[in-house]
Amino acid sequence: MLTIHTAPLVLPAGADPVVDGAVAVDGDRITAVGPYEDVADEAPGARVRRWPGVLTPGLRQWHPLWLLRECYHPDPREAGELGEEPLWGERLAALGELGETRWAGSVRRGVQRMLRHGTTAVASPGARFRDPLVAMAVARSGLTVVGTTDAPGALLGERPDLDPFAEGHDLRGTVQGPLAIGGRADLAVFDVPDETALRARGAVTCVATVLGGRLVYRAR
Q1: Backbone dihedral region of 29: left (phi > 0), alpha (psi from -120 to 50 degrees) or beta?
Q2: 31-83 residue pLDDT tens
Q3: Which entry of 10, 89, 107, 214 is 20 to 30 Å from 38 by CA?
């Protein structure tokens, strides 16, 4: 179904920002990017999704394996005991030996957390995961797997972060690719007024993630 995603500001990452912009999506492909009125005129009858803030390309996470296998993502039923944030280091070690079933659940929840941060692509050497739990969860999610050829150097901070902006990159350095006609419809929406605010507040402001044309996350 043809869908138009519109927001007060569209940041294509490969062109100038578009005020009151829109992106038209047909299946898993982008068919138009530009001012809402122009895009709507080219797509009569399209479903329209109106979002607050800024609409950008989906983000790329450079450290998915660490975040999924060196962190435990608590089940909501464990929140009273373990909290809601990922556990790593000494807190992870304190949990003792985790069976495969428990790890599989953690990996799935970790993938969902990535989607809630606007992530649509994850990096791994050779653009593949050898860990079967990670490979299965990523494949089922629809996340794009990319190589690590252009990966940044040293981390900022003591560990990777679910927020792809945490390493200090600007938007063009954090997205997988620009919004372009014919490109895969991987989009993210953040409830901030502009790119400066997005970099300052980070991907925690994500309110929607579109993966291959599918709305896979929407904030309540």
Answers
A1: beta
A2: 999 999 999 999 999 999 999 999 999 999 999 999 999 999 998 898 888 88
A3: 214
Angle at the Cα of 199 (from 196 to 201), degrees rounded to 5? 105
Answer for the pair 115, 217: CB distance below 8 angstroms, yes or no: yes
Cβ within 8 Å of residue 128, ≥6 positions away: 135, 145
Q: Full-prediction pTM beyond 0.85?
A: yes
104-159 residue pLDDT tens: 999 999 999 999 999 999 999 899 999 999 999 999 999 999 998 877 765 555 67
SS3 sequence of the chain: CEEEEEEEEECCCCCCCEEEEEEEEECCEEEEEEEHHHHHHHCCCCEEEECCCEEEECEEECCHHHHHHCCECCCHHHHHHHCCCCECHHHHHCCCCCCHHHHHHHHHHHHHHHHCCCEEEEECHHHCCCCHHHHHHHHHHCCEEECCCCCCCCCCCCCCCCCHHHHCCCHHHHECCCCCCCCECCEEEECCCCHHHHHHHCHHHEEEEEECCEEEEECC
For the record, the structure tokens of 129 come out as 């995961």
